[in-house]
Amino acid sequence: MPVTVGQKAPNFTLPDTGKKQTSLSDFAGKKTVLVFYPGAFTGVCEKELCTFRDAMADFNSLNAQVIGISVDSPFSNKAFAEKNGVTFPLLSDYTRYVSAQYCGLVNNFAGLVGLTAANRAVFVVDAAGTVTYTWISENPGVEPPYEEVKKAVA
Predict the structure, then answer these.
(1) What's the rounded mean pLDDT across residues 137-142?
(2) I need a labelling partner for 137 at 20 to 30 A (CA). Which of 13, 36, 39, 120 fits?
(3) Please, are residues 36 and 103 in contact by the beta-carbon 8 Å criterion?
(4) Please, what is the angle between helix 43-54 and helix 74-84, to 10°?
(5) What are the phi and psi torsion angles at 84 (to 5°)?
């Protein structure tokens, strides 16, 4: 059952690109945009995270923190962030627990039997830790509605 609007956002702790444990609760007191993406170095994910990267001034002006989450290893996420100049945290949900809890999983991702990835999804969590916006794609090839996300943060 995915996380829904009005629900307290379940806390989690995942490693970032430097293997430092990072928790959702670390960002308490500011709006947080959780961006679940299926896989580093895939075309749509690259476009999506670069779009969020390019909008960071907007999110910063709204006192919002963007966090990317995928089932990739911290090492893959680090290389992905470096290649694309992504400066917001990318967290590794390699056990798939947080992705399953928040937005569900895509089995046989990209037609590869046995490859399980996070659904593409965006959640906005307010400063008090309540989910105020959710978008979960049924198709990993579809990008999120960026302007809608910005409005939800504002």
Answers:
(1) 88
(2) 13
(3) yes
(4) 60
(5) -105, 5
- Mean pLDDT for all residues in the chain: 95
Return d(Cα 32, Cα 87) in angstroms, integer: 15
Token pair listed for 65 = 């923190």
- What is the tens place of the pLDDT at every residue in 17-33? 999 999 999 999 999 99
How much is the average pLDDT of 127-152? 94
Residue type, 123: F
Integer CA distances (angstroms), 80 to 72, 114, 127, 150, in order = 10, 23, 28, 24
pLDDT exceeds cutoff 90 at 1? no
119/99 Cα distance (integer angstroms): 8
Identify whether the C-beta of residue 54 lies closer than 8 Å to the C-beta of residue 46: no
Q: To which H or E segment does residue 148 belong?
A: helix 146-153
pTM: 0.95
Domain 13-153 fold is Glutaredoxin (3.40.30)
**Which residues are designated catalytic?**
45
